[in-house]
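Table S2 (text version). Query chain:
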Amino acid sequence: MGTVGWIAASLPALMWVGLLLTPWRAWSTRERIEADPRTGPADLSQITVLIPARNEADVIGLTLSGLQAQGHGLQVVVVDDQSTDDTAKIAASFPNVRVIRGQALPAGWAGKLWALEQGRAHVHTPMTLLLDADIQLQPGLLPALLAHKQRENRQFVSLMADLRRTSFWDRLLLPAFVYYFKLIYPFSISNSSSRLVAAAAGGCILVDSEALQRAGAFASLRNALIDDCTLARQVKNAGYRTWLGLSRGVVSLRPYGSLRSIHDMVARSAFTQLGYSTLLLLVVTVLFAISYGLPFLLLASPATWRMGLLALVAMMLSYLPMLRYYHMRLAWALLLPFGAVLYLGMTWSSAIRYWRGVRSRWKDRTYST
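Corresponding structure-token output:
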């Protein structure tokens, strides 16, 4: 085999071993905050929770029950975003919860951001908790998040939710979703003062209300489909410090279960993640082919099988911390290449939707290009 052949054969191993050796350790789960149910009653009167809710009658009760268990003095504002079910009625049955009837969605706004913008006028506390309507906080989580925010002197902290895993497709794809998110947005770089990376998880964000206002709040990103990372970027650019981590105490109540439902979740923003760039899509496709496909081809050759094996071992080692964190069998690492093929297909599906005139489709709303 010539020099060029050896260089090509070594590429997958160099990529995966290099990933393991990078100082920012994007594959690790060291950035985390867990709920402590032993925490005593906490004073949360300095926080207002802002919840955008559209047709969330099946989960809003659990979300609000979780908030009731966090401490005393917490104020909650639910913005009922034109729901056609009993979302508003259920929310109004909880004490210390104010329900705001959302107005019709104006042109140029994403639904969630428009709901948050309407609710922002009702926030009069130093801090705001942006919480999705399908997120349940385990007892002690919010006091732990607040303590971390104060201890680290951050103005913006967020936690990635623990996604429900009830089916084969959930177990195959949802931990990998978090894994890929961490590879794209290394948490340790995002959490540093560097402005190279700014990331957040929109399901649970605790932010200083002043920082939110000075960063332009929601009007400045009204049409963003990846609103959490866009908001983190603007907060960072305004001179504030952000932090992002994992938590098993932030529980997503939204069931996926099927490949189609996970596809819809990913495809609504995957091409947006690439800036609607066909060139970047092709680059990602080539990188996936080299990192996930080429190792298997190398295994078939007596001259290169060691390179292929090294790449596959390093690949699966990089995924093990995520599997351990979510208490999953380590054997799922063997299926990571299969999951990668599916994610690449979902990204192409997202691009095809865009080329057909649809930027995104979510919650019975379609956002055109």
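Notes on Table S2: The domain at 47-257 is CATH 3.90.550.10 (Spore Coat Polysaccharide Biosynthesis Protein SpsA; Chain A). The beta strands are 47-53, 75-80, 97-101, 127-131, 135-137, 156-162, 204-208, 242-252, 358-362, 365-368.
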